[in-house]
Please model this.
Amino acid sequence: MIIVMKTDATPEQEKAVIRHIEQMGFKAHVIEGEERNVIGAVGHEKKKMDLMVLTTHAGVEAVIPISKPYKLASRELHRQASVIEIVPGLAIGGDKFVVMAGPCSVESREQIVATARSVKESGAQVLRGGAYKPRTSPYDFQGLAEEGLKLLEIARKDTGLPLITEVMSQRDVERVEASADILQVGARNVQNFALLKELGRVSKPILLKRGLSTTIKEWLMSAEYILSEGNTRVILCERGIRTFETATRNTLDLSAVPVLREQTHLPVVIDPSHGTGVRNYVPAMAMAAVAVGADGLLIEVHPNPEQALSDGAQSLTLEMFAAMMEKIKPLVTLMGKSL
Ligand code: PEP
Ligand code: MN
Model:
């Protein structure tokens, strides 16, 4: 339920409402607005109408049900698009556009540092690199794990770029949280609810990828798992879904962006690398992502894609990434955003 406070409600009145919500066994989430605050009361769906009693509180304007099954993720509760701070001085959402770039996997110190320097020079604001890799075959390169995280930290120190890296298992959350600035949940883990709940309790933002066969509604329900545990910094990432088409690795669902804009306040990033699986198709889809109103991009870049230990076919060379950035910059401005 949404508890809409009056514009002149006092902090004491708000506290009394929160106390009452909690006494009834619901969780209260305050959303501060420019004119008034609203409080989201979430908990058991069957008991939600009990919350109508809150209309009797001083300071309450209205109590309105949220029609969607996801509550904290929904636009109904949070009308304003969320602007999420990644690190001090860098935010995503609203009029900010953020490009995260780097190799699929961290392979060596030379590889990650050279990539970090180059993508920074081209305008990327975040360095990506996988240390724990979800590979289809157990015989493929699985990532450098802890060693990969240390190499990422070296690249951050060298360039100042914040880091995004994937966390695959609940077991590794604490360790990855200690190194990363954003924790990535991969497509295959989008419905690993135990992992999502754990990530709801970390202090860093989470980038939640869409699953290979996840509907937008299911994806937002997954985001709700993180939000409901108290972590409000969730970024969604469309990375292509599985269809009958084989010319591309996945089918990049750019129509998810306007749908999500309507349904949720959370920022949306596009990953055209996994979305297409083909290096030559990445720049065009990156431009389309800007044009459709995405809040950022996640791009795989490698100094020598032919030698990459994972996803070489879809990784841009350093030069291709630089050229892509030059192409998207005017489009980002045209969309009223800034890099
Ligand atoms: C990745 O970002 O390298 C990755 C494994 O992505 P996804 O989970 O989208 O397949
Ligand atoms: Mn990859």
About this structure: Residues 104, 130, 134, 186-187, 209, 239, 274 surround phosphoenolpyruvate (ligand 1) (CB under 6 Å). The longest helix spans residues 318-334. The mean pLDDT is 97. The chain has two domains: 2-64, 84-334.
